[in-house]
Amino acid sequence: MVADKGKKTKVEEENAEQIDSELVLSIEKLQEIQDELEKINEEASEKVLEVEQKYSEIRKPVYDKRNDIIKSIPDFWLTAFISHPALGELLSEEDQKIFRYLSSLEVEDFKDVKSGYSITFNFSPNPYFEDNKLTKTFTFLDDDGSMKITATSIKWKEGMGIPNGVNHEKKGNKRPLAEESFFTWFSDTQEKDTIDGIQDEVAEIIKEDLWPNPLTYFNNEADEEEFEGDEEGKEDDDSEDDEDDQEEDDDDEDGDDEGN
């Protein structure tokens, strides 16, 4: 019995070694396939960047033409910002006054699109700061998400400085105004050259959502105002109908009194 048990154990060890070697071989083959896929993915990424680079240059003059038209529309960027569900919450009451001087917005990829981008706010002369443009630049340092962020140091005019919003209660469909100024966005990162793994959410929203089609948000505000106007008009019509019905009832009562 002891000999049989020893023989069985030896067979099991040989089988285990065979299974282990087969497993190692399968894993090595699988790794080769993964390496091949990785190489294809890298080539695909390079091709995508080449295409994006090409169309970034094609879009540039179209964006310039769009900016020229936008300049003729009063408070376009202010309206688009406050109508955006995320950006609108960042503007204080004072910020909205400053944004009335915002003449154009520009989002530009670097010549090598994978290197970074910049967001520039162009202002007409205003009583708040000396700068005619405020820029925030994002430079990607490597593939792990690290970036260098630089921003314009705002030259506030005497007595101005970063305005602080007031916490207003929400009225009707209007969202409450921000407690902190949007312009702190330009100062928050001035002393932080490198931020590991932290994305600038405001920049991402402006670049990926607002900038491609700001007309969507500008029209949203127009639609809301039109809707509110319709509601007010409807209320006025209803009140007028009630007044007409009351007058008819009064006339009927007067007629009955005369008949008696």
TrEMBL record:
The leader peptide range reads none
Region of interest (Disordered), ranges: 214-260
Instruction: Please indicate which superkingdom the organism of origin belongs to.
Output: Eukaryota
Output the GO biological process annotations, alphabetical, semicolon-separated. Answer: double-strand break repair via homologous recombination; nucleosome assembly
The reply to whether Coiled coil figures as a keyword in the UniProt entry is yes
InterPro entries for the chain: NAP-like_sf (IPR037231), NAP_family (IPR002164)
Compositionally biased residues, Acidic residues = 221-260
Annotated coiled-coil positions are 16-54
Keywords, in A-Z order: Chaperone, Coiled coil
The molecular function terms in GO held by this entry are: chromatin binding; histone binding
Which Gene Ontology cellular-component terms appear in the entry?
chromatin; nucleus
Family under the similarity heading: Belongs to the nucleosome assembly protein (NAP) family.
| Protein's name according to its UniProt entry | NAP1-related protein 2
